Amino acid sequence: MKAHLLVCLAGLAMFASCASQTEIQSEVTTTPAAQPTEATSPTARPSPTAQPSPTQHAVPTPSAESLIMLQDPLDEPEFYCVDVAGFGSSLNLDAPLQAHTCKPGADDELFTYNHPGPGQFSMDAYDVCLEAGEGVLYVRACSDSPKQRFALSSDGTLRLQDSDLCVAVQSGEGQPAGGRSHVRRDLLLQSCSDVEENLSRWVLPGPRP
Q1: How far apart, in Å, do the first and last CA atoms of the chain sit?
Q2: pTM of this prediction?
Q3: Between the N and C ends of the chain, which has fewer C-beta atoms within 10 Å?
């Protein structure tokens, strides 16, 4: 009887052990595996918009010293050039400028265009600049005055900037100016529509025609 009881108890113990192992295996089998989390890529930031660079305006290059010469010789085979009245000790920088027989290399006829600023004509020998007056032209101390700003067009027109005034020589015949066969004419600042083309077309040939 005791032996039979011991056998039964041993069987119950084995059954309990098997049931416990079966439950553990069931838990392991049914537990869902952890799913990997997808990495979230960072939101792309828009590239900054390129800003346009500021417009660069070309600054005119000063010319070399040059005569301001009328393209048409008119009655003077040696051509007319913009000139300071007088000569040597009698030079008069305060008088209106004139058109005179060109004098190659003479300081009182040599100008530098676009110097010291755009549109200016400087006479470096006397430290003055071309300036518009009332119907005439002078040389005065260089300044920022709009009266010293000129534009030489491709057709030879020499105009006071932002105006309808052009540089021209007096019509008619040249007047004797003394010395050799030199002649002169008045130099005028007139409405561009009123002057004849052959009296108002200029060129910068350098220090000699």
Answers
A1: 151
A2: 0.71
A3: N
